[in-house]
Amino acid sequence: MATATYTPIATQTLGSVAASITFSSIPGTYTDLRLVLTGTTSLGDGIEIQFNGDTATNYSFVSLSGNGTTASSGNSSSQTSIRINTQAITGVTYADFNAFDVFSYAGSTNKTLLATAVSDQNGSGGLDLTVGLWRSTAAITSIKLLMLSASYFNTGTIATLWGI
Amino acid sequence: MPLLQTKADASAWGYGFLGATATGNFYQIQQLSPSAVSTVTFSSIPSTYKSLQVRFNLVTTSATFGELQFNSDTSTANYAMHYLSGNGSAASAGGTASGTNGYIKMFQNASVTTYPSVGIIDIIDYANASKNKTVKTLVGANNNTATGSIEINSGVWLSTSAITSLTFLVGAGTYTGTITLYGVS
Fold first, then answer.
1. Which of A149, B10, B127, B139 would be B162's cystine partner, CB 3.0–4.6 Å?
2. Confidence (pTM)
3. What is the complex's ipTM, to 2 decimals?
């Protein structure tokens, strides 16, 4: 008998602006995690993700991006976070859509994620696909989303963590 | 917009733009934990779902690529694919028509031994017996160097047979990890 899954673990809806969003005490009972964030940001900055409060240079990522004109790919190694959504939009009119799939998050391998980020502003914006690595074999028990510099998530931004 | 609707929409996008889904219609059919093997097969797949999704987290012993076959069909006449990929320095696109590979090619990784290759494979209308089968894969690998791979691929299996088995192979070496088959009703 197949087992129903894809279960919402927690949802956060921002009642005021915030520099970060954290999901903690994540149960280890699923195979994968999916974190979906939709909302707007103050400076159109990229979004960063960190695990288990780790701020050391244990992260790396490779991206594939399109901005409406060209396609490109980039990489960064030994970073303090995985960064996605380089096409992010400033303002409150057009929401970004960001999704993170974190595989075997409770297992003993290093942790790899796939991220999809979409921003469109009727003529500008773009999309990113990203593969990110957290070089740790620890089970993921908390996830923090944050923004670079002085940027923040605007009121009304919604983040939902799912267990699969 | 009610929160419930927002969550449902997010879920639908999460499946790669499949039809809207909500908790309760995504089912784990089978989970495998391969260890140092070059192939695994999901067999006797029930036809009771609308779509299938495979999610994997696999460490390979070689820099290699993943391959997908249906119903044990190895004929090069029956598979074609396209890809859009980034390797950390450039974006590229390409594809192969039928007659080239006896499988749908997926991730191309440079990450061996330590860092997993991951992916999500969506197989649409897999039980339909009157049309060819289309596949979308989002796959990636990263090994904390300038080289890595993020790809979105399309593939087609030129067969109107319902998919009842799915085989996952690698081009070289073996793999270890977790691969799970889900049904979307």
1. B127
2. 0.91
3. 0.94
